[in-house]
Amino acid sequence: MPQIGWFELLVIIIVAILVIGPKDFPVVLKKIGTWVGSIKRYFSDVQKNVNEITNLEEDNKNKKDRSNDQ
Question: CA nearest 16: which of 3, 35, 7, 29?
């Protein structure tokens, strides 16, 4: 996967400022930050739910194994 260096990041920022305009650039950055935050929260919730489900399945399996051993 290609990596983005400091120079490429600087070029992207300069082009974004020229295309969007210096007045609207902070507004766009704030909106992008909000989107990234909500996406991170969504994936965190999904991961938490998957972990809960797998833990429940493991607990049920362990309970079954213990009852079969007795």
Answer: 29
DSSP alpha helices (H): ranges in 1-70?
6-20, 25-69
Distance CA 53, CA 19 (A): 46
Q: How far apart are CA 56 and CA 63, in angstroms?
A: 11
Helix (H, G, I), strand (E, B) or coil at 5: coil
Q: Given a cut of 80, is residue 30 above it in pLDDT? A: yes
Instruction: State the Cα–Cα distance between residues 7 and 13, nearest whole angstrom.
Output: 10
Amino acid at 55: N
The span from the CA of 44 to the CA of 40, in Å, is 6
pTM here? 0.59
- Segment 20-26 shows an average pLDDT of 92
